[in-house]
Amino acid sequence: MRKMFNVKAIAKTLWISIVVIVIVVAAVGVYIYTSQPAKPERLIKIAWTEGPEFDFIADHLDEFEDETGITVEFLTIPRAHIVERLMLEMLSPTPSIDGSIVYVLEEPTLAATGGLVNLYDYKPKSQWISEGFYESQLNILEINGELYYVPSLWNGALLLFYRTDLFADATLKAAFKAKYGYDLAVPSTPEKLLDAAQFFSKKEYNGKQDYIGIHLQLTTTEMGSGAYTIYPPLAAYYGGGIYNATTGQILCNSTGSVEALEYLIDLKNCAQDSCLEDGTFEAERAVMAGNVSGTELAMADQWSYMYPMLPDATKPWNISMRPFPQGPDMLGIAILKNSPKKDYVWEFVRWTSSAEIVKGTTLATPKAACRSDVADDPEVSSNYWVDKILDSYGRVMPITPVIKDARSTEIYEKMMLRLGEAFTGSKTAKQALDALYEDIATIVQY
Amino acid sequence: MRIFYGWHLKKEAMFGILLVMPAFIILAIVYLFPLVYDIDLSLSRWNLAPPSPKEFIGLKNYVDQFSDETFQKVLYNSLFFTGVSVPCEFFLGLALALLLNKNIRGKSVIITILALPMMIAPVIAALTWRWIYDSNFGILDFFLNQFFGIRPLWLSDPNIAMYSVIIADVWITAPFMMLILYAGLQMIPTERYEAAKVDGASSWQMFRYVTLPSLKGVLIVALMVRTNDALTKLFDVVYVITEGGPAYATEVLPTYAYKVGLKFFRLGAGAAISIITLLIAAMMIVAILRASRGR
């Protein structure tokens, strides 16, 4: 065997081969890298997502590039995963992106890393306000006196969608008056909303025709929709809350919070069976078809962006002010502190928050304008939905701020878990919120 | 070659070591280093929200996790999933392999069709199942409603959701079992069956006394691989179908480790969960090996 194989020679050949292969691969890699066409110096990369507002900006991007000479490259990331991606970019001394969309729920967690630029360094608060930005909205977004983005992209409101034919039906009106003692009208308070939902739901009506009282999105797995948008504002409305980051007080198992969750469970019992599963697509379909799996739908708690779809719906709908408060649905562009092109990203932020662009994104899908000059613009103010949105989103019903704590993401996640336990009946409302109290008490120790 | 005092390395051994050295170096970089770093992280407290410096805290992360109600629920989910899905995959794979071991016309085509689920990216398969389970648009509830008047909430009922995930996972992974066991069956010499026939053995006796013992080695390997995968690699199916909901009813160790480490940014706690997962998987594999040697 030893005479057949010269061991030393084989080993030597093997090692030389490996070294040669490594050198060749490295050389090819260097050649490919250096032969790439040079990227423009004034190029910024922005983490982006999809939707009509983003399409509007993309369609007008050449105007920005002509004006400033800055080229913008979008990196599309699902909004629900922006935090994971952005967090690592902010910690990197050489981030691969220069700016990113940021959502209000995750802003406290991202801001706590110190990786976002304070926009007041570029433009003081007084100047933002004098330009027309609503101070109340800026206050919602401010964290420790710093502003990281303005809600120039998303600022949607939840509205009450209701079936005009059902609310005008004489038989139903008479039955409602007989049962509740007052006239059936579009609900303007949580109590009247529950009455109407219970009346229309198959459990309360006389059984001749089934209805689903209200379409709710109570998904507990997706931040920014579902249970988050409904419960915390309700808890605040009833005098409770979740967690006050300023005082450190945990409010989730207060009397008002428990009352709010018990109310929500009663409302859930009037909703579609799949309310813990449904997403926004299912909600759109339910409203457009006027039913859920064949059962007629009487009301829906849904986003203002759906209003333009209503003329194409198979049943007649209208919108009204949401009968209880909501949280902010604010999304805008933030600048990464580690980016060497901060000033270029600021130009992009300045342009996307200009009156002309904000007007375009406001009209792209119905939402609350972040600037008063846009809200007062005849082309915007003439829209039917403007007053309904403004009433729902701060003018009549207050906007309930988010928890401004670095651990807000985890606190909301635990809230979703405990709400899910209450909604599915594995815990009572009090038990679920007591458990949430313990969760938050543990989290804030980290 | 003299390595240590009194310990000579033969030239053949030296040659072998040199041959595997490049692979070992790569393994050390991509496997050992992250594992050691992960263990170090699991013994530390390092949060990014808010940022805090990394500090050694010993086994506190492990103690905190085991005393956390949510972790206990997640651990139970993982063990339940493994305990149900692996036997389901095994028996389904074995049944299919035994059927395919017969002389059937068009066997190769049938094998290819049955193996298709394994060839689809798990994310795509999971997304397909999510649409199948959808209570409003899903084909499953459509037919169940048409014929039986029922419409189960496959994804939002906490009593059912885990089974929904298990069914999807079994559909994806049973072909793997089938192929491994089929290969094992093909290696069994036919003389054993002939001898058993001559001795008057029934089909069940042939299966019990010839097939199973002959398949033992292959069975052990298949069970070890699937048990490990069910515990440590179950991420995409759960994440796509239910995202761990409703109310953590389908949250498993890998998805929870991701959530704690990369959504809550408690790196030390996330690392501890991943090490716990690894240790549980190792214990189960050792248990399978010991059980197989016991007979």
Description:
Chain A has two domains: 43-155 and 328-395, Periplasmic binding protein-like II (D-Maltodextrin-Binding Protein, domain 2); 158-326 and 405-443, 3-Layer(aba) Sandwich (D-Maltodextrin-Binding Protein, domain 2). In chain A, 46% of the residues lie in helices and 11% in strands. Chain A is built from 20 helices and 13 strands. In chain A, the strands form four sheets. In chain A, strands 2-1-3-13-4 form a five-stranded mixed sheet, sandwiched between helices. Chain A is globular, with a radius of gyration of 27 Å. The longest helix of chain B is centred in the first third of the chain and has 32 residues, at 11-42. Chain B starts with a strand and ends with a helix. In chain B, β1 and β2 (7-8) form a beta hairpin. Chain B has two domains: 1-38, no CATH class; 69-294, MetI-like (MetI-like fold), CATH 1.10.3720.10. Chain B is mainly alpha-helical and 295 residues long. Chain B contains twelve helices and four strands, in the order ββαββααααααααααα.
How do the strands and helices of this protein lay out in sequence?
The complex is a heterodimer of chains A (446) and B (295).
Chain A: H1 7-34, E1 43-48, H2 52-59, H3 61-68, E2 71-76, H4 82-91, E3 99-103, H5 107-111, H6 125-131, H7 135-141, E4 154-155, E5 158-163, H8 164-168, H9 170-180, H10 190-200, E6 211-212, H11 227-237, E7 243-244, E8 249-250, H12 255-268, H13 280-289, E9 291-292, E10 295-297, E11 299-303, E12 317-320, E13 330-335, H14 342-352, H15 355-364, H16 372-375, H17 378-381, H18 385-395, H19 408-423, H20 429-443
Parallel strand pairs in A: 1-2, 1-3, 6-10
Antiparallel strand pairs in A: 3-13, 4-13, 5-11, 5-12, 7-8, 9-10
Chain B: E1 2-4, E2 7-8, H1 11-42, E3 44-45, E4 55-56, H2 60-66, H3 69-100, H4 107-119, H5 122-133, H6 139-148, H7 161-186, H8 190-198, H9 203-232, H10 236-241, H11 253-263, H12 267-294
Antiparallel strand pairs in B: 1-2, 3-4
